[in-house]
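Mods, move this if it's the wrong board.
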Amino acid sequence: DTRLCHDELRRKKISALIPPRKGAGYWPGEYADRNRAVANQRMTGSNARWKWTTDYNRRSIAETAMYRVKQLFGGSLTLRDYDGQVAEAMALVRALNKMTKAGMPESVRIA
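Not the wrong board. Structure tokens:
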């Protein structure tokens, strides 16, 4: 959440999706996206509302899933060619899904 970072994103015409730091202040002029995030933070006392309105929570879920894959299966792919790496990644995801499914409770409707 620095001006250099936001300037680089604007230069590349990318809308910033960076949560402001705690107690962040408004920046002048062309930093409207960040100022909206700061306004949300000040109104609600946290970044929670901003995260839901921008779907930032989905990014957080994806980062958590990648962390789990790396912790369980290692941080790198072993195959060298691209098609092999794609197949290896799909196998890792399939294995993670099976482990997640095995740990989920089974719901039963009552009445």
